[in-house]
Amino acid sequence: MEYMALLIFFGLMLAIAFVFVFVNTLLGPKSSEALQDYPYECGVPLYDKSAQSTFHQGYYLLGLLLLLFDIEAAFLFPWAVVYRYLGIFGFIEIFLFLLILTYGLLYAWRRGALNWQFEEESL
Amino acid sequence: MEGLVIWLIVTFVKILVILGIVLGVGAYLTLVERKVAAHIQRRPGPMVVGWHGLLQPLADGLKLLTKEDLFPRYGNRFLYNLALVLALVPATLVFAVIPFGPEFEVFGVKVKPILTDVNIGLLLVFALGSMAVFAIALAGWASNSKYALIGSMRKAGIVISYEVVITFAAMGPLILAGTLSTYHIVQSQIEQGLWYVWLQPIAFVVYMFAMLAETGRVPFDIQEAEAELVTGFTVEYGGMKFGLFPLVEWYIEVLSLSAIAVVLFLGGWSPINIPFLGFVDPLFFLGPLSPFIWFILKVSLLFLFVLWLHWTLPRYRIDQITETAWKVMLPLTLLNILLTAILAPILWR
Amino acid sequence: MVKRVFEKPLSWIERIIFLDFIRGLSITIRQAFRKTITTHYPYEKLTPPKRFRGFFGHKVVDGKEPQPAFDEWVERFKIKVEHGKSRCVVCMLCKRACPVPQLFEIEGEKLPDGRRRVSVFNMNMMLCTFCGFCVDACPVDCLFQSDIHETASYTRKDSVLDLEVLERIGRDWQRRREEEPDRIWIDDHQRQRLWHENHLQLPEVKQ
Amino acid sequence: MTTIPLEAYLIISVVLFGLGALGMIVRRNMVTVLMSMELALNAVNVLFVGADAHLNLVDGQVFAIFVVALASAEAAVGLGIIIAIFRLRKVDSTDEVVDMRG
Amino acid sequence: MPWAKEEEFISLKRRFEGLEVEEKSTITILHIPKARLLDLLKALKEEKGYKLFLDHSVVDFPDKRPRFQAFYILYNVDEKKRIVVKTWTDGTLPSMEKLWFASKWAERECYDMFGIRYEGHENLVRAFMWETYQHYPLRKDFPLEGYATDYLPSLNETLWGESLQGLMNYDRMHTPVPTLEDLEITEKRRLQKKAQIVLNWGPLHPGTHGTMWFLFDLEGERVFQCDVILGQLHRGVEKLAENEMYNQFLVYTDRMDYLSALCSNQAWVVAVERLLGIEDLVPEKAKYIRTMMAELQRINSHLLWLGTYALDLGALTIFLYAFKEREKLMDIIEGITGARLTISYTRVGGVRMDLPEGALEVIKAFVKRFPKELKEWETILSRNRIWLRRNIGVGVVEKEEVYFYGLTGPVARGSGVPYDLRKFEPYDAYGWVEFDIPIGENGDVYDRYLVRLEEMRQSLQIVEQCVRALEKMSKNAPFFAESPDPKKLKLPLDGIGLKVPEGETYSSGENPRGELGFYIYSTGGVKPYRVKIRPGSMYNLCVYPKLMKDRVIADAVAILASLDPVVGEIDR
Amino acid sequence: MIQWLVFLLFSALAVLSALGVVLLPNPIYVILALLSVLVSVAGIFFVAGAELVGALQLIIYAVAVTVFYVFVLTAVPWEKALKKDSHYRVEGLLSFPLVLLLYLEMLFVFLIGVSVSPKGQFREFIVKFGNTEVVGGILFSKYFLAFELVSLLLLIGMIGAVIIGRKEAQTYDNNTP
User: Fold this and answer.
1) pLDDT tens, residue by residue, E263-315
2) Which residue segment(s) compose the domain that B124 sits in?
């Protein structure tokens, strides 16, 4: 039942967002200048039509780290909730868990994966 | 059947309140920001529209609404618009799990001032919060502008880095409270007579930094670093669409994350806390309204603090930001979790 | 002679308690509670100093011409002097001194009584650099620069000052500010707002 | 509270898995192949949770969590391999990789 | 004046056949045939210590054969001496790019303006004009108005039904402007694309401080190569100088480095005074006023730099604080000179007007308050951890690179080269006041920042001393030089009839952005024959592509702002 | 009743989006479709009462995994792939029935398993303590070995991905204009 409220709210927000998307088309003026729809290129002509394919970002490794640590977080959430009942056993469990993953973090650190666009650090 | 009707009425009232906060308060926070910035810079700020510029947000909104709808050449119109939806909807949905005060009774109906009190509330917050990445990535990609693309990639890099940090920072209070429901976290703080900030100073500082980073506030506002990227991923947006991105990022998200910070660390609607002794309420004369006032007060203080930082500090560079997240903040939070795990049983006893 | 510049690095304590942030924050918050310093243009405007080099004007004959230079030049060019009209003696020195002489268009006309008078004096402000060489060159203190600084116009035509406009500006100037002493500026409320924190007290105006 | 019968979950699961398998087979782009695999894994998850709802158990949910974890580890390594292949051979579709073997 | 003496080159004379030394009061010139030029310059650089490259250009004599006289101006920082090397050519010169990087840009400019071909130049493309432009504008046979080919219609007169007659009408033929296709050809020719994405950074970009066009070859956000396309603001100031009287050219110096117009004014009139030999005739009061105003302008310029630099690095509030103080300075300058930006206050022989009443009081009030404000900004910025991380180790210029790239001003001083013309070659009242040269150690962005802050303090000291000296002077002391012989030398305030005898000189002033030098070649008369301006900003900018290598875009703003270029001066 | 409606809504959305995943040519749209599938499946989990799994589905799958895909797409110039035909048509249709048959067989086994296994009593606990607590309790007691193994798996995954995804140091020429 609680989720129904969320669902209703979601639907409502969706409607409002769509209103915002189309409101300018309805209310705004329309003009057609030759270059007005050019993407911003600092006032010089546009040579490559598509900027989308030309951009290369090296930091997908950050995405990888996010993935792994999100899973870690996903296991930590239920653990945090039941930690009260697990006692010392729970502590050892999570200590091992964190230890293993911290090792992974340290490994990535050492290999320079944490560096932005991961330039190789001298090992 | 009658129960359903009452439930529906209550739900709609709650939704209206949240909408008011999101769109009304959000818009007026622009004025607050402009005034604060202006006075820090020895200017009066907006003064023309209304008394001391009180009608300025309305004028701005009206202006934005009547702008021409521009769309960049060679872009992708569907994704360009979808990005806006993806930015606005998850950011506002977060308000659904924020408790504004304790349960109270009106006309014989018990009302919890929280839209959906579920026992995975915090998980929802972080899940929805990181949905912003898609909006940003799509906005930059669909605009087909190099500047927008660089800006969106920067922002996405920051959000994914600090998403982990913020989740881990929130873990400390979670261990102490033993629940994922935002409402119960506050309640357990009140029962234990302790704001968790006293036990979690590291987590609180880290959380604040992560919050600034997620919302793109100074010192982490590199996604729209004016001097480098003009306005970053919103560079190709115009009119209300352009207005909504900062609204979502700088106001709605800051508000919701401040509220979560208040819930996690500052005891929600509880009055001033003396550690392990109890609560002192200088606002007792307001009676049942006092918890709500306290909540609003705490959130607005946090918001003003964010503004104050924004208009004082310079900004970091993208590599420094992400590296700080992984190399400083994440180990700190891991340490904090371990410390809390050791500390928590003592507290419970 | 030579001074090395350096700053101390941050100490660990400063790092941990964020002392650098706190120092900066304390300064900005102090500024926030001080008076604002801005002028609320266009609702209020500063009075430009007397030396301000704005739009041009022709001072008119009113008996205060620099003597004996004025009489000498009038005799040399046989100029008809009329009270309330431009002092210009059509010597063209302003045009010669100008880095962009094209902006001047000056013509004199011969009157029936044999004396001359300036008939056309156009200055195209779109070409002007407001350097003031023409003012320096004017031997009779006729051409001058007024304090008019809002010079935007809707047409190019409006940015050409002809004799009539120049004389009007000159008359206005002579009425308002001619008598003012040569002072760095006139203390007005708006300027005081900016200079307030310097505790500046300009000495009294000597009339 | 009406409960949803196991058959409903089964149908959804079958359809999702079928589509995922189809995607894995017909997709040319390696990244999209991996995405289809995620679809199939999700279908299994639906099955687990549906069975749990039917049996009043939670073990299935625990397994669903493990599946999620495994799936993301698989995605991490899989995408890493794709990027490595791309770096080395500058290709990103499945048949080109095969072509280059010979 | 610190020109090298003839004795010094006796040994060189033996080695280099055809080397002649010409020593005048205003200049010392080495004449050398083109064939030995490269060797001579190399010997000067490596043996004689003339390490700092100042300027290179040519003077065009259309009637002579060979037609072009090329000159190189070098400086010996350790012994504080300057030398000019000259040679004659008919269209080709050896390139000095191995000796000084800075000469590369100077050579490109020469190629652009005179059509001189440089042998061995790696990237000989036009510096300012677009690639499809046919003519060489600084040659004497190029008309001042240019070749008018395009019709520029009158824009609004038809709309309002009014028409203007004669010269006031805009409806006329005009020189061509580059079209989009021209720009594309220009970009393509400059660019050696290596990475996946080429980012147009500028010309219309808030981070470039003017209309500069950078092309970044990006890999992710890392810049692998940076190309600069200049000329967005090119107005041909040097050509104009040949067609204006000496005093009138003052107006154009305002518009070169528009942020420090007074310093440029001062440098120009000092150059002309030196050429005329009347530097000592200028009254003391005028010298003090000029010095004081120039130092106020220096603070003004550095304040704008500080504000925009902090703005670029995200500290928006400092911008407003700096502008608050700048506004006060503007008030002072406006009250004394009548203009805020294009000041034209100095004249050959003095200044335009005496100080008005109350000027000194206002300046004293400013000087008293300003250090406190400066301290506050330093507290916000200098030791802020974010500021430190953004600044330290970014854009490092080594000491040797200062000479190689011809850097001057705060950029050179930040790298530990105490090159300050106010000390080395005191002009106006700088010889009579006391101040220090701030120098940095590492040559990174942070050192340049500290150097500029310290320079503001030193400027304040100079202003204070000037105010004290001016207060002692009587109100009626002259502020304009009396000509010793009005028949021979006329010194008018309005610039009409100032005749300069035959001769040549190179004189420079310490601008806030580096050395602003004027090489004046006069053949007598009211107009110079050739004026070569040595823009500090341009040579400071030429190190930028090197500094940007392997840095990210976020550093681009920091490094660019720390070099503090002004496009008006670069493009002229 | 409402539950059925919501379930149908999410199922329909999931199936439609799954079709999108299989059929859409542009990888960006495929990712969006995948996101939609994942969110819908999370919705189905919520309907089934598996709150924790649903939320984790959102936080891991819908965010982390999909974001990772997005980042990989920025690192791979997939536009080249777009120019070609994005699907194998004939081979796919030929081999598809086989795969489906395999799955149906698996399903059959699973159904037998469900029919023979006893019904648990966890619903009462869930109502009493909440889904998260119960699942957490089971996860950290009954399946704790698997839990630790997952951490090892993640470690291996991270190391593998870091090694594989490492970028060779690139060299660029040093000439400036």
Assistant:
1) 888 888 888 888 888 888 888 888 888 899 889 999 999 999 888 888 888 88
2) 64-348
Domain ranges, ordered by start, for chain A: 56-113
Chains E and F touch (3+ CB pairs under 8 A): yes
> Could you tell me the two tokens for B176?
């102490």
Partners of E168 on chain C (C-beta within 8 Å) are 105, 122, 124, 156, 160
Contact E387, E379 (CB under 8 A): no
Q: Which residue, E508, E305, E532, is CA-closest to E422? A: E508
Q: Residue E168: its pLDDT value, please?
A: 62
Cβ neighbors of E99 (< 8 A, separation 6 or more) are E38, E41, E42, E45, E53
The total domain count for chain B is: 1
| Ordered domains of chain C (ranges, CATH) | 56-197 (3.30.70)
**E350 CB-near residues (< 8 Å, 6+ apart):** E282, E283, E286, E478, E479, E480, E481
Write the residue in F170, F173, F177 that is nearest to E228 by C-beta. F177
The residues in D 20-59 lying below 8 A from F, measured between CB atoms, are: 20-23, 25-29, 31-32, 34-36, 38-39, 42, 45-47, 49-59
* D33 contacts in chain F (CB < 8 Å): none
Domain-embedded: residue B29: no
Determine the residue of chain E that is closest to B147 in CA distance. E199
Best residue in A4, A57, A61, A71 for a mutation probing chain D (most D CBs within 10 Å):
A71
Q: Give me the domains of chain D, ranges plus CATH numbers.
A: 6-89 (1.10.287.3510)
Name the minimum distance, in Å, from the CA of A61 to any CA of chain E: 13
Question: Contact E112/E133 with Cβ under 8 angstroms?
Answer: no
| pLDDT above 60 (res F175) | no
Burial of residue B283 (CB within 10 Å: 0-12, 13-18, 19+) is middle
Select from E103, E98, E94, E95 the least CA-distant residue to E74. Answer: E103
Chains F and C touch (3+ CB pairs under 8 A): no
* Superfamily (CATH) of domain A56-113: NADH:ubiquinone/plastoquinone oxidoreductase, chain 3 (1.20.58.1610)
pLDDT of residue D98: 52
Q: What pLDDT does residue C102 have?
A: 81
Question: Is residue F170 predicted with pLDDT exceeding 70?
Answer: no
Q: Is residue B17 part of a domain?
A: no
Out of B123, B130, B134, name the one closest to residue F35 (CB): B134
Give residue F121's pLDDT band: very low, low, confident or very high (50, 70, 90).
Answer: low
pLDDT over 90 for what percent of chain E?
Answer: 0
% of residues, chain E, pLDDT over 70? 94
Interface contacts (B, F; CB < 8 Å): 54
Report residue A118's pLDDT band, with 50, 70 and 90 as the boundaries. very low
Q: What is the pLDDT of residue E158?
A: 54
Task: Using CB atoms, pick whichever of D3, D21, D38 lies closest to residue F99.
Answer: D21
Is CATH 1.20.120.1200 the right assignment for the domain spanning F1-89? Answer: yes
- Cβ neighbors of F105 (< 8 A, separation 6 or more) are none
Q: What is the pLDDT of residue C81?
A: 82
Whether residues D72 and A68 touch (CB distance < 8 A) is answered with yes
pLDDT tens for each residue of B171-180: 888 888 888 8
Instruction: Check residue D29 and report its DSSP letter.
Output: B
Q: Can you say how many angstroms the Cα of residue B276 is from the centroid of all Cα atoms in its chain?
A: 29
Query: Chain-wide mean pLDDT for chain E?
Result: 83
From chain B, pick out residues whose CB is under 8 angstroms from the CB of F17: none
Q: Is any Cβ of chain F less than 8 angstroms from the Cβ of A76?
A: no
Which residue of A61, A62, A110 to mutate against B (max B Cβ within 10 Å)?
A: A62
Q: CA E483, E488, E491 angle in degrees (round to 5)?
A: 35
ipTM of the complex, rounded to two decimals: 0.84
